[in-house]
Amino acid sequence: MDNIYLLMLIAITVLAIADIVVGVSNDAINFLNSAIGSKAISMRTIMIVASLGIFIGAVFSSGMMEVARKGIFVPAMFNFEEIMYIFMAVMITDILLLDFFNTLGLPTSTTVSIVFNLLGAAVVMSLIKISASDSQTFADLGNYINTKKAFEIIRGIIMSVFIAFSVGALVQWVSRLVFTFHYEKKIKNFGAIFGGISLAAITYFIFLKGLKGTPYYKDLKGVLEGNELLIIIGSIVFWTLFSFAFQKVFKKTILLVVIAIGTFGLALAFSGNDLVNFIGVPMAAYHSYEAWSVSGVDAAMFSMEVLDKKVPAEPLLLFIAGGVMVLTLWLSKKAKTVAETEISLSRQGETHEKFEPNMLSRGIVKGSTLLSDLFGKIVPEETQEKIGKSFEKPDVVLTKDQSIDAPAFDMIRASVNLMVAGVLIAIATSMKLPLSTTYVTFMVAMGTSFADRAWGRESAVYRVAGVLNVIGGWFGTAIGAFIAAGTVVFLIKWNPSAMTPILLLLTIILLVRNYLSHKKGSKKVVTEDSLIHAESSSIQGVINESANNIANVVKRGNKIYSSAIDGLSKEDLVLLKKNKKNIVKLSDEIDELRDNIFYFIKNLDESSLGASNFYINILGYLQDMTQSLEYISKVSHKHVNNNHKKLKFNQIKELKQVEEALRLLFNTTKDAFDSQSFEQIGSIINGKKEVFDLVTEKIQKQVERTRTEESSPKNTTLYFSLLLETKDLLTATMNLLEEYHNAHDKSVEAATIVSNLEEE
What is the three-class DSSP state of 19? Predict the structure, then answer.
């Protein structure tokens, strides 16, 4: 039995390394988002700067290690055996919870996760001890849990959400008021002052305040304490002069330096604050094992009051942990998925919204609009106009795809994000509060987005829904961590020799499964049949460019129609269900093309307006086609799913004949568009009467059957519905072909749009 504690220690150490990987994948990417989103400096430079920050910050984190040792529970109330069970449960649940959020691509808090894991495991272990005692009751739970410190931590975490959002919004609003969105000229005049204040704030709070959490502070205490004001003034003067010299010598904006040093500072603050979340528990477990192994006392009798003493962190372990964090930062693909969430929610321009609006987000947006209208009535119009000019954005119209490739926001916002987040985290670290870096960086970014009016009427409900989803996930983290850790520690206590290996094996299986699932889902390659946006400025250009889209719609439509008939004839519910998903996907892609019409028309010159009419018409016909296919697919699935009578042999035979004729028509159409042989379209159109006549003939036959032999109203309704919708599908297809046939002129050369980005 003695060896089980050594095995537990080894398992906890291995889990700690894995925890750093999954934790950094979720948390560390937050301090890169501002630099990545602004695209001010190269990705390689960002990663190098952040890596240096993490290494140095790892040394700053030793003062935070006490949180895992005695910040949540009272060590003296537990014996060595119970402490090891608690630590084992915490590491298992922490790694699974963080990996789950990484797989979803949602930023969550490693601080909240570790705090509530420790709390859940300690509470359940305390209740087990209380239930086994004759003299103790539930009221004695407070003797086991460090309630004052736990509530202080939880209160700080919750407050950080509101403080970070408010401070970020206020600083960004003032910065935008001063510099506007056309900040290039003002940065030349006032950039040195902005750079001086920003860099002074970052360096003072990150380095000087951050030093308070380290053993190195005592050597500098005499110099620093009492001279804070002098140091701040001197720092502002130094950095202002540096900013002025940098802009003059290098002819580049000082914002580049602010973003680089801000990224370094935030990485350092992150590492100093959050490393405890990854290795605090393993180090406490190591010290516990070390004290017990030399005591000679039975594990169930050895009191863990040894953890009450302050133990310095081993620099080598901190260095190794910092190295693992840096490697994860460079190699983790899940980190990039998490980054996409925050950047998309704070993007200044249009984007493919990741979250669907909900009742709460709609209510918040409507309430904010009413408050804005009320504010508009109170503030004089002249003042509103003056403020409004500072928030006028550059007149550049980009498509959603172009907007995603462009910077998500400008360097002013990136600088404010980094400065405010870094300062707030460093203040908390100096106070030895394990503040959630995720909450702070995320909410600062949301606050600056809000102040920058990135959440306009077009996108507000989606962005607010996204923020609510993320915040809801944080509360889910807390509740899930508490319950999961409590459950796991109960199972381990029940039968440690059996449950420990079972739970470890289950952890490995779940991690591998999530990895494979994410790897599969992250392959966002454009499939061969996906649709592309038109960017040509002439009818002939749109004809040539959209030919591939038409070929793909016809190919996929052909498959959907055939699958519907096939699934109906075989009563194959699985095939029909899959078919419904395929048509929804196709319909969504065409809706997305329609969403792009605004940008397409805005990029046309007056001489090319005919292209817009043509483009709108073909999109309308494509939508008509998908609506018919969607109806056919839906009624087929509904009929089989409701277990109605199977279609009669003659009905299935006739539907197969129609499907064969339609397949031939669609294949010929696809070949014409694939090869861009638009001359063939005329012959396809000439054969439309033959196909229409076939469908009309089948309708007439069903009328005769209904009068004489048909006995199922459901079958009759379904059969007529399929044939009538097939006629509508044919009509939309022929209208599309006629539009191409009438508009195509091979003697005219196609023209394309020169985008605003290319012009610049």
Answer: helix
DSSP 526: P
pLDDT 10s digits, 215-245: 566 666 777 777 778 888 888 899 999 988 9
Extents of the domains making up the chain: 1-181+253-369+402-511, 539-745
Give the pLDDT confidence score for residue 488 in this predicted structure: 92
Task: Give the three-class secondary structure for 204.
Answer: helix
- 10 Å CB burial of residue 76 (0-12, 13-18, 19+) is middle
Indicate the angle between helix axes 460-494 and 80-104, nearest 10 degrees.
Answer: 150
- Show the low-confidence residues of the chain (pLDDT under 50): 1, 64-65, 524-528, 535, 537, 747-760
Instruction: Give the Cα separation of 484 and 472 in Å (integer).
Output: 18
Specify the pLDDT at position 2: 53
Give the pLDDT confidence of 28-49 residue by residue, as tens digits.
566 777 878 788 788 888 888 8
Given a contact cutoff of 8 angstroms between Cβ atoms, the answer to whether 590 and 530 are in contact is: no
Provide CATH code, domain 539-745: 1.20.58.220
Distances (CA, A) of 473 to 150, 366, 439, 469, 470: 20, 24, 11, 6, 5
In our burial notation (b when 16+ CB lie closer than 10 A, e otherwise), range 108-121 reads: bbbbbbbbbbbbbb
- For 748: left if phi > 0, alpha if psi spans -120 to 50, otherwise beta; the answer is beta
Using only C-alpha atoms, the chain has a radius of gyration, in whole angstroms, of 32
